Amino acid sequence: MDISFIINELGEDREKYFNATTPPIVQSTNFVFKTVDAMRHALKRESSVPFYTRGCNPTIEQLNHKMAALEGAEAALSFGSGSAAVAAAVMANVQAGDHIVCVQKPYSWTYKLLTQIMARFGVESTFVDGQNPKNIEKAIRPNTKIVYLETPNSFTFELQDIRAIAKIAKKHHCITIVDNSYCTPMNQQPIQLGADIVVHSATKYISGHSDAVGGVLCASQVMVDKIFAGEFMTLGGIISPFNAWLMLRGLRTLPIRLKRVAKTTKKVVKFLKNHPQVEKVYYPFLPSHPQYKLAKQQMEQRGGLFSVVIKADLKGTELFCNSLQRFLMGASWGGYESLIYPACAMYDSANYSTTTLPYNIIRFYIGLEEPEVLLADLEQAFERIK
Ligand SMILES: *Cc1c(COP(=O)(O)O)cnc(C)c1O
């Protein structure tokens, strides 16, 4: 199946809805039946036949169908947020007494899930530097059930070799979960590399317009059925039909947006890398990055997130950030707008020295603006702190 077929045609049942090009938003919570037999049939297949919207809704189902196909997975489930998808994937595969090996510095709320919530239910987690697959293997215990990866991970963008690690996990009877939000299925396909579950914050690139929160999980049919019957239906963290529809709309332009982001990011990274007021750029697609080779091999294309350490004290860093006009300041990423996330916003200036990230590191996200506009904005902000 070619990508544009998946995006434009797969699961589009136009004859069912007046031959409308774009699918309707089916807001109905409930679906009704003419006979007991028809109702009985639907009840038995609650995950795939519209019966009640927490289980199956036609608009959400269209999103699931496309996401599974894009990831090369058998099935998918959508959630109200990426964090809900992460939590369901993890919780469905452990019980009290089990152990999880997780890559160092995962997404902050994934870290909280493992260290605070799962720990409360008797599931222990070990965090290791995933750049060397041997570190993962060393951390695996007889009771380890999950190897959790996020490649590249946030802020410093270390990679993990999915193929090598999934192989190790399999050998030790563990499943591998990969947070693929940074890459999307366009740029990296963890299931093809041996992973068992892929999770996404669809809020980022998949929505692409900074206007809908959502999450998706892709896996085998057996795994999806297990998660559906357990955490999905009981915790009920579903996406709304309207947000699923916004995700479908986002998917239509995902490849072209990612191409544009990649092109602009290349220019901005090059500019920053050569700038005299920049100390360091963290970006897997720089030849100087220690995992450049793995990035080229594992990822189809560069992404729009990277971090920069600027040559400035705390005051200078704040002035630089405050001076940017076209880069907006905020969390999240993956939308049309370029963003900065200054690490120093995460802690009080009095105690920045106690954290692992330096005060002068700034995460950048490159959106859809013209590259020249972004370069000029950066230059005027650097001028302010000269
Ligand atoms: C944003 C994000 C999440 C969480 O997704 P939400 O949709 O905000 O719940 C998980 N992982 C990564 C890598 C993210 O960037």
Task: Describe the secondary structure blueprint for this structure.
Layout: H1 3-8, H2 36-44, H3 58-71, E1 75-79, H4 82-91, E2 99-103, H5 108-120, E3 124-128, H6 133-139, E4 144-150, H7 162-171, E5 175-179, H8 184-187, E6 197-201, E7 215-219, H9 221-235, H10 241-252, H11 254-273, E8 278-282, H12 292-298, E9 305-310, H13 314-323, E10 328-329, E11 339-342, E12 361-365, H14 371-384
Parallel strand pairs: 2-3, 2-4, 4-5, 5-6, 10-11
Antiparallel strand pairs: 1-7, 6-7, 8-9, 9-12, 11-12
Question: Can you put this structure into words, describing what you see?
Answer:
It is a single chain. The chain is of the alpha/beta class. The chain folds into 2 domains: 3-252, Type I PLP-dependent aspartate aminotransferase-like (Major domain) (Aspartate Aminotransferase, domain 2); 254-384, Aspartate Aminotransferase, domain 1 (Alpha-Beta Complex), CATH 3.90.1150.10. It has 14 helices and 12 strands. The protein is globular. The N and C termini lie far apart (53 Å). The model has no long low-confidence stretch (mean pLDDT 96). The structure holds pyridoxal-5'-phosphate. Pyridoxal-5'-phosphate is lined by residues 81-83, 107, 150, 179, 181-182, 201, 203-204, 213, 215. The site of pyridoxal-5'-phosphate has 13 residues, from helix 4.
